[in-house]
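Encode chain A's predicted structure.
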Amino acid sequence: MSWLPPPADDPAVPLRQRNAPGWRIPIELIARKHGLFPCDLEPYEKGETIVWRAGDHVIKLTLPQCAYQIEAEVGCLQATHGKLSVATPALYAQGDLSGWPYLIMTRIGGRPLADFWPSLAHEERLRLAGSLGKLCRELHALPADGFPFGWDQFWREHTANLSARHAAHGGPPALLASIEPFTRGVREAAHGPLLPLHTELSELHVYAEERRGRLELSGLLDFADARVGPAQYELGCLVEFLFRGELGLLREFLLAYGVPEGELTSSYSETLLAWCLCHRFNNLNRTLALVAPWVPDSLEALAARLYALGPG
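Encoded structure for chain A:
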């Protein structure tokens, strides 16, 4: 089998083997082309694209049909580098290899928050949740230039047939049937103000490092699915992407982000769950796993248990 990338019209996607040694061939070709080789080449273990460390740089190679992600990341790296209180990669180069688009960026320090999170005490996670809220507020305050636009079309495409999309992943029939009416208000009113969003603030994309004896946020990366949109599209899924349903963390995040405490109500919990269900990478079955083995009898009950922003 050749490990050179297939032609652009070849639908074969061997990403399940993205860390196989053979991918070194195209990665080394890219590194040589841009004057980085000789250098240590090492694949990253996680992710959905082919990402390798190349010395002090990172090479990301992706599918021809996902070229839009490379373009999005190029624009977002230029828009965010040096603009936040944490590090973001600097764009070094971009190009195309046999129809496969790639980019090269600088490697940032620290490690994914996922490496630290399970061993932290609840109080430490609360403190970091507040830091994350401030970081998210910084990101949303940046100029939107460089982030992909086209929110209205994106929103229509990813909220069409919402119940069917969730049903494909399984779940209680009664809850699946209630998704459309539960999210109707959000789906009909989700048109602004439009801010620069990462859209996947997860423990793999937020970096941290030890400083003066305690853990601090140090970096933010992977803007492949970033775009301009309403803030709630970012906020709704944080209870899953970052906080894994741990009570108190989202409240601390939202307060640091700037949501007035008086707005943290049961109604706001339901609004955020509606946004979460509308997120392109969410599915109800995975969200329910956060509260298992308990099974809610309604989405309102799920919002009260999972977001817990109201009294009691």
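The mean pLDDT is 92.
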